[in-house]
Amino acid sequence: MRSLRVRLLVWLCLALCTLWGGVAAWMFAGMRHELRSVLDDRLIASARMVAGIVHQFKPHNTSPEDWGPMLNVVARDGVACEVSMIRSEVQTAPTHDAMDADAVSDEASGTAARPALIPASPLDAPRAKTVKTGRAGDFADTASEQAAEPTDSQVLARTAGAPSFQGPLPLGFSSITKGGKPWRTYVLEEHGVRIATADRIDVREGLIHGFAYTIILPFVLALLASMVLMWWGVTRGLRPLESLRQELSERPPGDDSPVAQGRQVKELAPLVQTINHLLQRVHKAIERERRWSDDAAHELRTPLTAVKTHVQVAQMAVANAGSQMVALRDQPGAGKEDAAPRPISETAQWQMTRQALEQAGEGVEHLQHTLEQLLLLARLDCQPVSEDAGGSRAMACGSEPACAWEALEKAWGLAATAIPSGSLRLRWLPRQALNDARLQDLRVAVPQPLLVSALRNLMENALRYGQQASGEPGDSAVLLGLRHIPQLAQVGGDKPQAMPVNPAGYVEFTVIDHGPGLSSEDCAVATQRFWRKQHQAHGSGLGLAIVQRIAQCSDGELELLPLAQWQQHKGYAFEQVHNGLAPEAATGLVVRLCLPVKSCAALPD
Amino acid sequence: MHVLLVEDNALVASGVKAGLQLQGFGVDVVGCASQADAALKSSHFDVCVLDLGLPDEDGLHLLARWRRQGLELPVLVLTARDAVDQRIEGLQTGADDYLVKPFDLHELAARLHALLRRAAGRTVDWIVLGDVKVDLAAGQAIREGSIVDLSRREWALLRALLQSPGRVLSLEQLRDSLYGYSLDVESNAVNVHVHHLRRKLGSDMVETVRGVGFRLGRVQGGSC
């Protein structure tokens, strides 16, 4: 169960229901017992009252025909009384007062048919006289024997609608089923008259159930009300936990300051303390990672500097020595005519040395580039991915938001000098608005050095890999575009994805080359670290990974797609982009980098 | 031009020293802050290349101490740490320039030239002294339209004099600029180079201040 509140409530309800259910069951059992006793008492009292009345108004002749009009009683449903004349001489004879509870409640189906079964009554005295004393010693006879004797009784009167209670009914209480209904009966014999009073057991039970409802209903209502109260109380009680949760959820990813909420609550204090310890450890771990990348930078750069410096010294020394004159007599293969002194730069050894040093220099440059990219990536990894659309978290480096236009121009300059013929091949997209002041004022939520680095990576990639093997230099143009878009949208995406939203919109940088390009499958994996299409190719395979990471950090997006796909979607004036070649012949790669506009910047309409 | 290189890594130090010497600098190398202090007390330097990771004292701390002591020597800081805030801290502490390892030796030399030029109050890297035009960046002296061939020591002497126009430089200062710590320098070596310089560029190029040392001549007529 995930909700602490629901869990608490369930436990409270369970406890409450169990305890109050037990109490209710106990009360109900006691009440049912009492109610049955009372109803049994009522049967006895009714029987005795009827017996008294019968005795008082008994006609002198005892023929049954005379009884008819006297006991013509209509009773309510569920209650029955039957008066019958006992013809047998066998009578039970009470000899003393038996008006005690035992006699009343004793069941006739039991073994004891004690004198107490016949309760004392004002009607007792005359009836006692009629009882034969010779039978007085048979008090200890079983009830079954007594029950068997009055079988020849004759019914004098019966309540309307009631079944006959003739038959082997014992004296006292018993339960029988008559007419398909269960009855509780009490049989009394007095003055030669046998009186059976009966209650329907189902009516009795209905009464008991009625009572039970009156007990259970308030209990259920009270339980419901107390659940509502408990919900309210538990919610109030859990408020410190909620405020702690809120503080943690509102915390920016990079914030590792101690948690303030919940310290005063006894139960929460250890939790808050543990969270703060955890934050401290995370803070230390991040610090360690940052320090590690700094230390790694130092440890790797220093020997690289030594190598690079010595290679350069050697190159300078070789260049200086190249102008010196040397006699080629000692050169292998040199003839006599070559004996005249010539510059060292013309010797094969000098050429080899120079080439070797050049290649060593290139190797060092490559190593340096890879190292810089790795360190940049390691630093970017230390930064948390931004959660808000403004991307302000990506500004953790403390730099000002970058001006998109300036960064693009700066990266343009760097890329143009880094790659031979770069300045000839870099061009603006045909419809690029070059004099739009609003575009030039756009600022993005990424520090300037990072943005320049990202754009430079994209441009150098385009310049390096975007060259047709046998094409004119004009075909290898790399086109650059910058525009403002209101929201992110993937041009080549097959599936619609949930895109982050920035109220100020996004800046879209587009870099298009016309080289062999990448397939859609390659585009999907090209941003993975150390991915290279050809392993012997120049580069470390980190450039696009860095751009991707910068985009992620600022809540932006990087998309790579084949040129043909982009043109289909874009409907771009094709001949302008591609110098009139057929669309299907178009190869090349389009890279779109979208970064959120910093909200404080002046927005274009 | 006399450079103090404070660098604890022997490999880097030897490479930088050789590279700078090839480009006409006189370089002395020390490996720690205490040695750097001692070197500054005992000798004259035109510029210092300071590595921040020193074994006995943090480079920035050393620099701050130097600046507190009133040392105005231009300092170029070399470091392997490239975070922006570290650069800012370095420049605020008193560094005049900043280079991140690994660097290009030509760039280092160019930056040192720029530092020296700024320290001498110039904005361009060439000087006209009468009929002689000295191009410090290209390492050329042109007299009456033709390039004058100067040896490495003669260049170092000319640079040292140009670095402090109007100021008298002692023999020891000039010897430090030319030879660094070398102990086996002939006592009249500086005089010999002064003589050669006068012969190539004109006798009024270097003025002798008796009992004190030498200074750049024709300075009144020089323009930048």
Automatic annotation (TrEMBL), chain B:
Superkingdom of source: Bacteria
PANTHER family: REGULATOR OF RPOS, TRANSCRIPTIONAL REGULATORY PROTEIN QSEB
Residues covered by the OmpR/PhoB-type domain: 124-218
Species the sequence originates in: Comamonas thiooxydans
Signal peptide: none
GO cellular component assignments: cytosol; protein-DNA complex
Transmembrane stretches, start-end: none
Annotated protein name in UniProt: Response regulator
Stored SMART domains: REC, Trans_reg_C
Keyword DNA-binding part of the UniProt annotation: yes
Gene Ontology terms for molecular function: phosphorelay response regulator activity; transcription cis-regulatory region binding
InterPro entries (alphabetical): CheY-like_superfamily (IPR011006), OmpR/PhoB-type_DNA-bd (IPR001867), Sig_transdc_resp-reg_C-effctor (IPR016032), Sig_transdc_resp-reg_receiver (IPR001789), WalR-like (IPR039420), WH-like_DNA-bd_sf (IPR036388)
Principal place of residence: cytoplasm
Residues in the DNA-binding region annotation: 124-218
Ranges of residues in domain Response regulatory: 2-116
Any Gene Ontology biological process: regulation of DNA-templated transcription
Localization terms from the record: Cytoplasm
4-aspartylphosphate modifications at: D51
Gene3D superfamilies reported for this sequence: 3.40.50.2300, 6.10.250.690, Winged helix-like DNA-binding domain superfamily/Winged helix DNA-binding domain
Record carries keyword Transcription regulation: yes
Keywords: Cytoplasm, DNA-binding, Phosphoprotein, Transcription, Transcription regulation, Two-component regulatory system
